[in-house]
Amino acid sequence: MIIRFALMTLLVAGCSDPYGDAQKADTISAYETFIRENPKSPKRAMAEMRAEQLYLEKARNEKTLSSYDLYLDKFPKGTLREKALEERRDFLMKWAEKEDTPPAWKKFLDEYPTGNVRQQRKAKSRLNMAMHRHTVTTGPVRMEQVNLANDPAGPKNGYGFYVDFTNKGKQSIERLNVMIEYLGENGVVLGSESWPAVAKRLPAGLPFEEGFDKPIAPGETRTWEWSTGTIPDGWNKKVNVLPVDIRFVEK
Questions:
Q1: Which of 66, 83, 86, 192 is most buried as measured by Cβ atoms within 10 A of its Cβ?
Q2: For residue 213, what pLDDT is reported?
Q3: What whole-number distance in Å separates Cα of residue 245 and Cα of residue 123?
């Protein structure tokens, strides 16, 4: 009887597959348990690799800085570390865009003082705008279907958007860039475009409109106009329009 029990114990032990069990569960906890209980297993490296993947997937699903930081703390030499660092930076940028407050933009710039030049430039401009938002008031958006060639008899092949911006500050504004966001269901931003309401120079060296380069004086209202025939799929005919960059005339 004792011999039979011993044989059964050996049989069960021989059939056990800790790594297979971890694979079936495919959870962080399962792989960490396997690694802890089988430190010398030849499959430890595969378990560690899968655990690392799951930690990064967790951060992507939870969409929080703390989840990304947890991954980065646990895998200082991880194979996915560079990708995680890039995703964390992009996540923080999107968070700052959503918050659009001086502390949010400052947090991004403090944590990423160097790196992506485009993001740096954007964060600095948006921080400056957030700090001076009180100097500009935004009127309601007016929208209509238009002919993009300004032909009164032509087909309505685009949309025109018009918004009044008023300088409530004490300094003249020499540059004011405006962004329009096209919204879909539940207010999801489907796409965005930006164009100056006033600037010394237009993007790509395009010709000036009359008075376009004249600064907006204190108390003055300037109408921003935007027309386009390229609208994202799923657009619900609603937009957000907001100033995103400002510069004042130096005294």
A1: 192
A2: 86
A3: 10
Which pLDDT score, from 0 to 100, does residue 4 have? 52
Which range among 2-6, 40-44, 178-182, 202-206 shows the weakest confidence by mean pLDDT?
2-6
For the chain, the DSSP string reads -HHHHHHHHHHHHHH--HHHHHHHH-SHHHHHHHHHH-TT-TTHHHHHHHHHHHHHHHHHHHT-HHHHHHHHHH-TT-TTHHHHHHHHHHHHHHHHHHH-SHHHHHHHHHH-SSS-HHHHHHHHHHHHHHHTGGGEEE---EEEEE-TT--TTS---EEEEEEEEEE-SSS-EEEEEEEEEEE-GGG-EEEEEEEEEE-SS-GGGPPPPTTTTS-B-TT-EEEEEEEES---TT--SEEEEEEEEEEEPP-
Radius of gyration of the chain (CA): 28
Output the CATH code of domain 135-248: 2.60.40
For 239, the token pair is 């937009």
Domain ranges (residues) in the chain: 135-248
Residue 49, token pair as written in the block:
């690799």
Whether the per-residue pLDDT at 8 is higher than 50: the answer is: no
